[in-house]
């Protein structure tokens, strides 16, 4: 809970920074604030306190996700210091990011569906603004508008679903709802067949709303355009923190409340997962722009993570935390490399970074190439990196619940995934297209030119990918 | 503990070599790999001939999932570890007078590869086995990608996707088995054996095929072989040696340790299919080898034929078949590294490996032609060479299984002699032409690689008993694990 206070306070401080002229110190203040937030969350471990007349519960599940989100945000800040410097209104950006994080914290620790809705809104509204923060760039504006329209649409579904569930059961509290749905009289009792129809419709509408947020096929159409148009740091934020929070909320709802009501939604999620894995991976193969490829790859990863929701068992919480951590680490790293490449690529700003921009990358900057290789291998799920163990754990959970066919589809999907992730690696280690431009770029991409923060980020993420992959018990043992 | 040392030492060595600069890397890598060889010889001396897994090291790794870091060696593992530790120094030595870009990364990858290979051969936990299995793929892929020849991007990619597809199937199969073990599941090899034996025959069938696909792609057995000739051709010599000399044995070892005892009923039921595929592969690859004009490709196809015979012998499920498979794994590893080095020596001097362009080398290079002859005889299984012992036992095993299979498989000896002797004739005999007249005989370093190989070929041919003795108890144990299903 103190984490939430700290983040809110940081957001307010960020807004005051312009007025009181301490903009320069804002970056370290926010960084240390996040570390403080992590420490505060750690202190709450095993306390399981309820707040605001049981609107929120900081149980271990919520705390672990809060820590994960703060840690990801910490890494994200290391990546995107330039994003704050280069823009005119940097304090706004800090405040928006911090408030968005507050929303994420609500989403991981709600125990009342109203809080879930509030969390999603608090998370999303700053993101709509941030997506359009490159004001004079047309595609950034397009991205913001698309994100806003689709996001609002999805939230509408969610809200409608909440209302219907309330209509059927008469409560917003997920604990009460779980007991109510768990008791045998509920369906045959006063709720009656009409009540059950309401409930089922409600569950499905909430499912649709949340699937929009996690970008599962067929609710993914906004993703590639929004990801591509938004400034790269914002895209990185969306595909890591937003996704983690959305999955935490998704799983919390379905694990506590609707686990016993699986008839109505397991088949739907089965289809969503299979479609996301297959379509996400297959479409990623055809992309030329690396950023779009990462967008589709994030759709496919959403598909894998849906496996955990489908199984809704003892393993799913651990699986989602671990997978989110592994995925966030690798994705943040990949986006950092991408943003550095964007800045140094000689082409004009409008054209995206393609696979070909990575030709000869290993010559120009062996360290970056090595880091990128680690991220791609981890995303592709090659041992001993974190991405592999995340997949392994999900597959085990799904097989245990008897979804053998889905696991085979997922295995096929990760095989397809190898194709486009390895394309990046192969490009990096093959000679540059024209030697002249290689020499020219050598100056712009030398290791010294990378900011200290980003160096730190690379070292941290590479180490995390290795350590998490070798000792997965560090995370999965916690829940 | 010795097993852990054998696994960890190459990893540390690899990281150390990465820090060195320039030409130093070669010498340091060679020294470190020789130390590893010394450790493995020490292990051999400590080894007691019995069926137990020795030098066992067992520590919980991911305890919430019952995954252990459990490594140890019985006779089968020990022999393959020895093969690895003997071949890696030779492979490093074979590159001594060759120019290699970024030598530190190259040798580092070779040593890390060695770590993964030793890990595969010693892992006694299914999850650990899978990790090492995949881990072995990454360094060799990079070796082929970064130091390979023309068109390497596409070819190595195919190789990677192919092997990974097999591995993923194996992973799904292993997880399935894992979930069948009693609660608080375990990946321990004996727990998996017990779980596998308890499955119904339809479950055993699909697990059999899932695991078989992984091993068959790695070896490769017909019809999963299409990645192999291109990859062998395009890889740098040392990469080809690693692939054919050691990595291929991961597949055959996998059959013995992780397929036959795991799903005995599945093997009884579908082993005949695997046998037919293996024998088909022998004939198919031998015929194609005869047609080849490029010597490196010819050896690649001959390797498919040899490994097909090993696989057929293993699927005969007889002691002779498995013993033959064991000895032939070692023999083939040694011979094929020798043969690929022969290719390298020729290519390095003549810049071609086409049979028709060469000729008459024997007249000017007596050293080279002699060692080539010995390796070649080992490869065509002449009595008193290592190949003979292996192929004899293998064919004996296949014969017990089915006479007709043995008749077809036996053709490999004849066809092998045809393509091998003919290529020797074309390259070494006849008139010395303008190109080959510039051939210089072996240098000191090249002799240093060839002489141990020649000694091993002859020594194992004359006196194979120690090898057979070491492997026998473990093989009998494996056979025992398969047989209860036989009586049911």
Overall SS class of chain A: mainly alpha
Mean pLDDT of chain A: 86
> Biggest sheet of chain B: strands, sense, closure?
2 strands, antiparallel
- Give the helix level of chain B as a range of percent: over 70%
Q: What is the strand content of chain B?
A: under 5%
Per DSSP, the total helix count of chain B is: 19
**Number of helical regions of chain A:** 21
Task: Report the principal-axis shape of chain A.
Answer: globular
Q: Give the tally of β-strands of chain B.
A: 2
> Taking Cα atoms only, what radius of gyration of chain B do you get, to the nearest Å?
21 Å
For the residues shown, what is the average pLDDT of chain B? 89
Oligomer description: heterodimer
Structural class of chain B: mainly alpha
Q: In terms of per-residue confidence, which ranges of chain B show pLDDT below 50 for 5 or more consecutive residues?
A: none
Radius of gyration of chain A: 22 Å
Please state how the strands of the largest beta sheet of chain A are arranged side by side.
1-2
Give the amount of beta strand of chain A, in percent. Answer: under 5%
Largest sheet of chain A: 2 strands, antiparallel
**Element-level helix/strand string of chain B:** HHEEHHHHHHHHHHHHHHHHH
Tell me the greatest interface: A-B, 29 and 27 residues
Q: What is the rounded distance between the termini of chain B?
A: 39 Å
């Amino acid at each position: 809970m103190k984490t939430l206070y700290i983040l809110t306070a940081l957001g307010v401080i960020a807004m005051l920074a312009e007025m009181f002229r301490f903009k320069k110190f804002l970056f370290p203040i926010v960084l240390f604030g996040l570390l403080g937030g992590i420490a505060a969350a750690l202190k709450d471990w095993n306390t399981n306190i309820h707040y605001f007349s049981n609107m929120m519960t900081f149980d271990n599940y919520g705390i672990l996700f809060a820590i994960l989100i703060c840690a990801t945000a910490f890494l994200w800040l290391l990546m995107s210091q330039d994003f704050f410097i280069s823009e005119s209104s940097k304090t706004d950006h800090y405040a928006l990011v911090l408030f968005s994080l507050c929303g994420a914290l609500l989403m991981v620790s709600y125990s009342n569906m109203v809080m879930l809705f509030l969390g999603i809104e608090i998370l999303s509204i700053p993101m709509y603004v941030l997506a359009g923060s490159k004001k004079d760039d047309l595609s950034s504006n397009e991205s913001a508008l698309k994100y806003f329209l689709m996001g609002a649409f999805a939230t509408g579904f969610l809200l409608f679903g909440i209302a219907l569930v309330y209509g059927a059961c008469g409560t917003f509290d997920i604990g009460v709802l779980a007991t109510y749905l768990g008791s045998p009289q509920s369906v045959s009792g006063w709720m009656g067949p009409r009540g059950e129809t309401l409930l089922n419709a409600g569950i499905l509408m909430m499912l649709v709303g949340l699937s929009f947020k996690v970008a599962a096929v067929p609710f993914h159409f906004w993703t590639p355009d929004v990801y591509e148009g938004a400034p790269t740091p914002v895209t990185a934020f969306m595909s890591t923190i937003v996704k983690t929070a959305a999955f935490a909320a998704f799983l919390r709802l379905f694990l506590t409340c609707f686990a016993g009501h699986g008839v109505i939604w397991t088949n739907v999620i089965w289809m969503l997962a299979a479609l996301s894995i297959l379509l996400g991976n297959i479409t990623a193969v055809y992309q030329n722009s690396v950023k779009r490829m990462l967008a589709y790859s994030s759709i496919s990863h959403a598909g894998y993570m849906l496996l955990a929701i489908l199984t809704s068992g003892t393993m799913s919480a651990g699986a989602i935390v671990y997978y989110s951590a592994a995925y966030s680490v690798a994705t943040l790293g990949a986006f950092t490399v991408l943003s550095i490449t964007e800045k140094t690529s000689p082409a004009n700003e409008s054209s995206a970074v393609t696979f070909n921009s990575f030709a000869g990358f290993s010559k120009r900057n062996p360290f970056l190439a090595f880091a990128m290789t680690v991220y791609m291998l981890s995303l592709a799920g090659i041992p001993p990196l974190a991405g592999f163990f995340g997949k392994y754990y999900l597959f085990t959970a799904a097989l245990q619940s008897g979804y053998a066919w889905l696991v085979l589809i997922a295995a096929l999907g990760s095989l397809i995934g190898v194709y486009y992730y390895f394309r990046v690696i192969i490009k990096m280690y093959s000679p540059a297209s024209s030697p002249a431009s290689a020499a020219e770029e050598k100056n712009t991409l030398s290791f010294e030119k990378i900011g200290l923060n980003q160096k730190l980020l690379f070292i941290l993420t590479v180490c995390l990918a290795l350590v998490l992959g070798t000792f997965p018990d560090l995370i999965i043992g916690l829940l | 503990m010795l097993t852990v040392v054998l696994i960890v030492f190459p990893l540390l060595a690899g990281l150390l070599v990465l820090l060195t600069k320039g030409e130093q890397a070669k010498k340091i890598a060679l020294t470190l790999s020789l130390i590893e060889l010394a450790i493995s010889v020490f292990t051999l001396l400590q080894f007691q001939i019995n069926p137990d897994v020795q030098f066992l090291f067992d520590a919980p790794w991911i305890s919430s999932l019952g995954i252990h870091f459990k490594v140890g060696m019985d006779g089968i593992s020990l022999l393959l570890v020895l093969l690895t530790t003997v071949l890696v120094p030779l492979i490093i030595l074979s590159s001594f007078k060759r120019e290699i870009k970024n030598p530190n990364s190259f040798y580092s990858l070779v040593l890390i590869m060695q770590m993964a290979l030793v890990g595969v051969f010693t892992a006694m936990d299914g999850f650990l086995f899978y990790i090492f299995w995949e881990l072995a793929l990454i360094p060799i892929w990079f070796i082929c990608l970064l130091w390979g020849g023309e068109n390497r991007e596409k070819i190595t990619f195919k190789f990677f996707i192919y092997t990974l597809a097999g591995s993923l199937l194996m992973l799904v199969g292993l997880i399935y088995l894992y979930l069948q073990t009693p609660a608080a599941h375990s990946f321990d090899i004996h727990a998996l054996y017990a779980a596998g034996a308890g499955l119904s025959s339809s479950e055993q069938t699909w697990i059999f095929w899932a695991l078989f696909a992984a091993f068959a792609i790695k070896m490769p057995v017909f019809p999963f072989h299409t990645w192999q000739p291109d990859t062998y051709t395009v890889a740098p010599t040392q990469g080809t040696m690693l692939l054919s000399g050691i990595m291929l044995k991961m597949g055959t070892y996998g059959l013995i340790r992780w397929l036959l005892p795991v799903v005995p009923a599945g093997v009884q039921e579908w082993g005949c299919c695997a046998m037919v595929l293996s024998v088909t592969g022998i004939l198919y690859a031998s015929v194609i080898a005869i047609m080849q004009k490029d010597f490196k490709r010819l050896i690649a196809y001959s390797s498919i034929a040899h490994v097909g015979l090993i696989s057929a012998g293993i699927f005969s499920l007889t002691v002779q078949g498995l013993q033959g498979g064991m000895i032939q794994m070692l023999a083939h590893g040694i011979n094929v590294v020798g043969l690929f080095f022969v290719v390298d020596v020729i290519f390095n001097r003549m810049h071609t490996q086409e049979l028709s362009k060469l000729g008459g080398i024997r007249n000017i290079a007596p050293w080279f032609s002699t060692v080539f002859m010995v390796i070649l005889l080992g490869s065509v299984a002449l009595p008193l060479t290592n190949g003979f012992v292996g192929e004899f036992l293998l064919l004996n095993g296949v014969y017990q299984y089915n006479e007709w299979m043995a008749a077809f498989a036996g053709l490999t000896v004849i066809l092998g002699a045809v393509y091998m002797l003919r290529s020797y004739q074309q390259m070494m005999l006849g008139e010395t032409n303008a190109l080959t007249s510039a051939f210089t005989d072996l240098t000191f370093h090249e002799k240093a690689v060839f002489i141990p190989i020649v000694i091993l070929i002859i020594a194992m041919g004359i006196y194979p008993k120690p090898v057979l003795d070491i492997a026998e108890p473990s093989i009998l144990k494996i056979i025992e694990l398969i047989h209860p299903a036989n009586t049911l």
